Amino acid sequence: MSSRALLIEIADVTKTYRMGEVEVEALRGVSLDVAGGEFVAVMGPSGSGKSTLLNILGCFDRPTRGSYRLAGEDVSDLDANALAETRNRTLGFVFQSFNLLARTTALENVELPLVYAGVPPRERHDRAAAALERVGLGDRLHHHPSQLSGGQQQRVAIARALVNQPRLVLADEPTGNLDTRASDEMMALLADLAGEGITIVLVTHEPDVAARARRVVVVRDGLIQEDRVGASDAASAGPA
Amino acid sequence: MRLGDVVRVALRALTRNKLRSLLTALGIIIGVAAVIAMVAIGEGARARVEQAFAAMGTNVLIVSSGAKTSGGAKAGAGTLPTLTWDDMRAIRADVADVRFVAPRVHATAQVVAEDRNWSTTVTGTTPEFFEIRNWPARLGAVLSPEDGDNGAKNVVLGQTVATNLFGASADPVGQTVRIANVPFQVVGVAAVKGQSAGGSDYDDVVYVPVSTFLAKIQGGLQKFIPGTILVEVTSDDVTTEVGQRIAALMRDRHGIAVGQDDDFSIKNLTETAARKQESTEALTLLLASIAAVSLLVGGIGIMNIMLVSVSERTREIGVRMAVGAKPRHVRLQFLAEALALAVAGGVIGVAVGVLTAGRLAAHFQWPVLIRPEIVALAVGFSAAVGIGFGLYPAHKASRLDPIQALRYE
After folding, report:
1. What's the rounded Cα separation, in Å, for the pair A180 and A184?
2. Model's pTM, two decimal places?
3. B365 is in which domain, residue-wise?
């Protein structure tokens, strides 16, 4: 089936940062393929390079060497405008700290990607409302983030990630600021989305969160150390 | 991104920090208000000067007698009577491009009506005077040629005198007033002229035929005019030339040799008016440039606050970029904010400027002159200031790295 076609094709990607005089190799030759509809957890200790990998996956950053094909399109050499467009059309993001706009209603937060896609206001409103409905916040459309719990805010963020019908949702420690119950709800929601055929790549250092994914990739020292399907022994993947 | 969204986002960001937006716009508000008010005042002053000279009569030359010299000290013009009635007739007859010639002699006297009296300037002149000054009668008529020939005891009152003797609404035509104990019949009240540029009242005066004046009020030497001669020329362009012709004629008639000083003086009102005009124009320019400087300072204020805003909202910029805002969207958003600040400041400034100009004009009794092109210029200039000074902060915002912006605390 077509959703099984490769969505992410990363081949031998390296990323080098210059920090003053020192060159830091954050990624040292990473190859990773993810098929459409997969639910992948990326794990690794801090400094392992998992954030860099996520930045490249998320089209925030370009690899120093190697290639990245997203949904069949080579995105390793795109300029800032084209990257922004790819983020807008193909990707959805969920962050640890929610990153909602303050003093802006849930609905308007969710509409944001559609604003930059140039969707007319009426359609924008309907699609954003539907996305909030989907994450169970149909009765909170006009609440501001400050009037919502952490779990609710993160669900607004997921609605925002989903509203432009992305191929890939990237979640960076989405449960990091949530209590256990909200975490569980969040993971259940992500699992549901994966079940609907949306590809999800989740970065976390919590083994029990990673355990909800169907595939776990462990990054260490800029390399992929482990890539396994089946989450039963995810707890041994490494300390946070 | 749609234009409506750009505007909406900009206005929302500005209304979120109302006090700060207001204070930021204040520079522009003051600048624009200053431009509007200053230019209006300058224009008002100019119109006032124009009005004053129009009241004195345009294309007018004033020929005065020479100055008396006693012990080396020269007294003022007219102290030594040198102009004769024949001189006046010669100017009328022999000088080309002269339209009207009138004598003007005056004295201060008490004018007495039935139960009231008023001290004013009594001017002796001829009907041509009213032509030169473009001065019709409001009630009755001005002096007629027959009045002069007959030595008639007729008088035309200025409005101020009429008001003081008979009340503001009364019609004194036909009444009798006594000037220096001589009874005169009021034949007219002159139209209101208002104040001169120097603040003296044009309407605080009465006019009598010059022959009557000399016979009954203040006699003079038969041959000489104890006052000045007013000459109106046919058009502005020839005023200076006619002045030169009169000067040549007078030198000839008075037998003044080459190298000797004139024993008369000729004042050219058109030239004086032009000089006044130039000085008010210079003043307007000066005030306008001060105002332009304050607009510039306002622009720097906008730039400052936009830079603060960019760094405060780094995270917001990161979020917007993450969900697909392109650098130009971010740039446009901040430019729109700077522009909105500046234009709002400009519009408020216009309102404040118009009010200020109105109040000042009322205070100085000047006409209010708000020129629409100045209003458009001021608003346009503030918009340009907003864009000019918003460009750098907006550029800075658009160059942010989304990852770093998202991590910014």
Report:
1. 6
2. 0.70
3. 3-52+275-407
